[in-house]
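We were asked to recover a plausible sequence for a given structure. The inputs and outputs are reproduced exactly as logged, with field labels preserved.

PROBLEM: sequence recovery
POSITIONS: 177
GIVEN STRUCTURE:
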């Protein structure tokens, strides 16, 4: 059975408090197999019959809303997709792993949308950006906390929800997959 990772957004922030134990229990009750959390910030490894990850994202978002009354974007990626998010990130190996992020996107922006996004952000900060397959690669050169490139800015300009993980975390997640 294929292995996947669910990357949850908005957990344990803004009042959306949920222990990883509660999350694991809820997913197991939905007959999701081999559930394991990695790093207590909403990363869940699991096994499931092979299917498009977009359908799994809808299922997991429904579980979050139904069981916990939490509106959470859930990006689900297969092991190969997580590997690609690391290997195709042009900033991995050049920037600090803690500052190099992959933003998993709900949908693929068009090149025109990405170009407009880049134009809107031009001159606002030192970040380096590149578009991937349903992801945005970012090197937060001076740190995420100091950046003006916020998830809200990204979501508004690209027209889809996002959740991000740094290269160090993705490496740990991939190793456990």
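RECOVERED SEQUENCE:
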């Amino acid at each position: 059975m294929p292995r996947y990772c669910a990357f949850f957004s908005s957990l344990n922030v803004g009042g959306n408090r949920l222990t990883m134990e509660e999350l694991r229990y809820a997913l197991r009750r939905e007959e999701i197999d081999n559930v394991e959390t990695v790093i207590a910030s909403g990363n869940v490894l699991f096994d499931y019959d092979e299917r498009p990850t977009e359908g799994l994202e809808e299922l997991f978002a429904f579980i979050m809303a139904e069981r916990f009354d939490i509106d959470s974007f859930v990006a689900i990626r297969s092991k190969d997709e997580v590997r690609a998010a690391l290997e195709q990130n042009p900033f991995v190996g050049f920037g600090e792993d803690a500052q190099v992020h992959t933003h998993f996107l709900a949908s693929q922006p068009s090149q025109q949308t990405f170009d407009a996004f880049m134009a809107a952000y031009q001159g606002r900060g030192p970040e380096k950006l590149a578009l991937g397959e349903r992801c945005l690669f970012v090197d937060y050169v001076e740190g995420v906390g100091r950046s003006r490139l916020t998830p809200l800015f990204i979501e508004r300009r690209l027209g889809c929800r996002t959740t991000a993980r740094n290269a160090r975390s993705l490496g740990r997640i991939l190793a456990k997959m």
